[in-house]
Amino acid sequence: MSVALAHLNCLELVELVTAYLEGDLSSGERKRFDAHLAACDGCTTYVEQMKRTIELTGTLRVDDLTLHAEETLRRAFRDWKAQ
Amino acid sequence: MQQLLSPQDARLVERLRAGDEEAFVELIRSLNPSLLRVARMFVPTSALAEDVVQETWLAVLNGIDRFEGRSSLKTWIFRILTNTAKTRGERERRSVPFSALDTEQGGFEPAVERSRFTGTGHWAVLPRAWPEDRLLSKETLSVVERAIERLPPSQRTVVTLRDVEGWTADEVRNALELSETNQRVLLHRGRAKVRQALEQYLSEEQ
Predict the structure, then answer these.
(1) Does B143 share its domain with B192?
(2) Is the pLDDT of residue A31 over 80?
(3) pLDDT at A62 (0 to 100)
(4) Distance CA B151, CA B70 (A)
(5) How many Å apart are CA B50 and CA B17, to the nearest integer?
(6) pLDDT digits (tens, 9 = 90+) for B52-87
(7) Cβ neighbours of B128 in A, within 8 Å
(8) What residues pair up with B117 in beta bridges, in sequence order?
(9) Residue B2 in this model has a pLDDT that exceeds 50
(10) Is position B1 within any domain?
């Protein structure tokens, strides 16, 4: 990320949130990020909202496999086994 | 079996080799939705994606005796899938390779609209805390679901694999053959749009 972190502002911070949450920032970048957060209510709320977004996404269910596809694959397995 | 393979994977591979049909069905149930989703990235229709996935499972069965456990079972299966899907995609000629999708979207998409910031890059209008009581409602969840459906395919795939299915960044990078940066950019843009949709919805009067 080539953002001028020495002058990290809110506009730049929101673009670094994923790298921050992924643990991909260098320790220097991370310190500046945390320092900005400590002084900025708007960005604190924003980061909180990103975390809630990720949590909510995690509660969605993965679509179930159709029974038809499973039956076809079971047959394929028996054929393979019989070889 | 090499030590790189987790005990669970090692056991599953042994059961498959021994012809345990239920082991195969377990594996299908856990991976099929993601396989379909990833296959869909390479071929133009869902029907073709289903073909690619079926073909992948047959290749898994035919190759399981030769599987050496140098990667996880999941990584190995997804590598078979992407190879199968690419071959099929080239044959269909209408497919858009994943890497091309990325560069198509190469333009900068801000996580938050520029108009929300002042000229010096500070919040002009602060984001407002979300009402906790509404966050876990069914309606809110369907807002998330619809926002994910509306994402461009590459962002949708990455967000779904990472945040719905709980894959690690490395697993996604391996399965989709993405660089570290591209994986993160797609995740970042996708998540930012889901957050935007939530903000919009939660700021509406009840």
Answers:
(1) yes
(2) yes
(3) 63
(4) 34
(5) 24
(6) 999 999 999 999 999 998 888 998 999 999 889 888
(7) 45
(8) B123
(9) no
(10) no
Residue B2 lies in a domain: no
Are residue B62 and residue B124 in the same domain, yes or no? no
Q: Are residues B31 and B56 in the same domain?
A: yes
DSSP secondary structure of A9-44: -HHHHHHHHHHHHTT-S-HHHHHHHHHHHHH-HHHH
Check CB contact under 8 Å for B145 and A53: no
Q: Residue B74: inside a domain, yes or no?
A: yes
- B164/A77 Cβ within 8 A: no
Q: Is B46 exposed, middle or buried (0-12, 13-18, 19+ CB in 10 A)?
A: exposed
Assess whether B87 and B142 both reside in one domain.
Answer: no
Tens digits of per-residue pLDDT, B171-191? 999 888 889 999 999 999 999
B110 touches chain A (CB under 8 A): yes
Residue B69 lies in a domain: yes
B194 in Cβ contact with B146 (< 8 Å): no
Q: Which CATH architecture has domain A5-82?
A: Orthogonal Bundle (1.10)
- Domain limit, last residue, from B30, B58, B92: B92
Domain count, chain B: 2
Is the Cβ of A34 closer than 8 Å to some Cβ of chain B?
no
If asked whether residues B24 and B68 sit together in one domain, one would say yes
pLDDT number for residue B39 = 86
Checking if the pLDDT of B170 tops 60, the result is: yes
Q: Give the pLDDT score at A72.
A: 82
Q: How far apart are the C-alpha atoms of B128 and A45, rounded to whole Å?
A: 7
Q: Does A37 touch chain B (CB under 8 A)?
A: no
Would you say residue A5 has pLDDT above 50?
no
CA distance A34 to chain B (A): 16
- What chain A residue is nearest to B131 in terms of C-alpha separation? A49
Q: Mean pLDDT, to the nearest integer, of B186-204?
A: 96
Domain hosting residue B32, numbered range: 7-92
* Residue B152 and residue B112 share a domain: yes
**Separation in Å, CA of A15 to nearest CA in chain B:** 6
